[in-house]
Amino acid sequence: MDGDVAPLRGICDLAERYGAMVFIDECHATGFLGPRGRGTDELLGVTDRVQIVNSTLGKALGGAAGGYTVGPKLLIDLLRQRSRPYLFSNALPPPVVGCATRAVELLLASNEIAQSMTAKTMRFRNKMTQAGFTIAGSSHPICPVMLGDARLASLMADDMLKHGIYVIGFSYPVVPKGKARIRVQISAAHTDDDIDHCVDAFIQTGRKHGVVS
C-alpha cells in the first residue's frame, strides 16, 4: 500500500540464524519486480534463500482471479490435503489459466516488459516529485500520492476522472488516519505520453486544491 519493498535480505538473515523458513506474499511484485519480473526475491538477489512464495494471477499476470503457492513438495502435498481455501474452491476457469500462462510465457521469453516497468515507474515518480507532490516508497510501480486528508483524496480523484485519469482515493480504515492518498499503479501498457498526461492532470488538479503551487 505504501509502494515500498520489504527488507527481504535482513529477513532471510534472521531466518537462517534461527532455523526458520521464509514465506513471502508476492501479490504486489510478481510480473514486474526484478530484472525479469520474478519478484522481490529476484530484485534483492535472495531467490535461493526463500522457501515459500504465495502470489496471485489476478494482478500483473492479468488473469483476474486465482493464485498459487510454490514451495517444497512436502508442503505442497500437505496444502493439497489440508488447506481449506484449496479444498473448498472450484477449479479456475480455463480462460483465466490460459491468460496467466501466456503472461508467464511472455515474461520468460524477454525481460523487456519488466525493464519497461522500471523506466515508466521512475518517469512518473520523478516528474511528480519535481512538480511538488510527495510520493511514498522508492521505486515500486505502486505510487501512492500522499495527501493526508480523506476528503481531499476523494475530491482530487473525482477531478482526475474529468481529465480522463481513473485513480482511487484511499483513506482510513484502509490506510492509517492522516495517511490518505491517491494510489497510482503504473502498467506496462502505459506509454510515456500516458504517464505525462497523468502527471499534467495531477498538476492541474493539485493546483486547484492547493496541494502544489
From TrEMBL:
Domain annotation Aminotransferase class I/classII large: ranges: 1-202
Statement: the UniProt record of this protein carries the keyword Lipid metabolism: no
Gene Ontology CC annotations of this record: mitochondrion
Pfam families, per the entry: Aminotran_1_2 (PF00155)
GO terms of molecular function: acyltransferase activity; pyridoxal phosphate binding
Alphabetical UniProt keywords: Acyltransferase, Pyridoxal phosphate, Transferase
Cofactor (UniProt): pyridoxal 5'-phosphate
Family to which the UniProt record says this protein belongs: Belongs to the class-II pyridoxal-phosphate-dependent aminotransferase family.
Name of the molecule in the record: Glycine C-acetyltransferase
Provenance organism: Xiphophorus couchianus (Monterrey platyfish)
